[in-house]
Amino acid sequence: MAGGWDRVLWALEELSGAELRRVKAALNRPPPGGAGGGPGPIPRGRMEGADALDLAHLIVGHYGEGFGLRVTAQALRRSQRRDLAEALVGEEAPRPSPPADLPRDVTAPPPPPAELFVRRHRLLLTQRVTGVGALLDHLEAAEVLTTEGVAEVAAASTPQERMRRLLATAPSWGRRGHEEFLKALRLLHPLLMEELEGGEDLQWSSPNP
Question: Does the global pTM surpass 0.85?
Answer without folding.
Answer: no
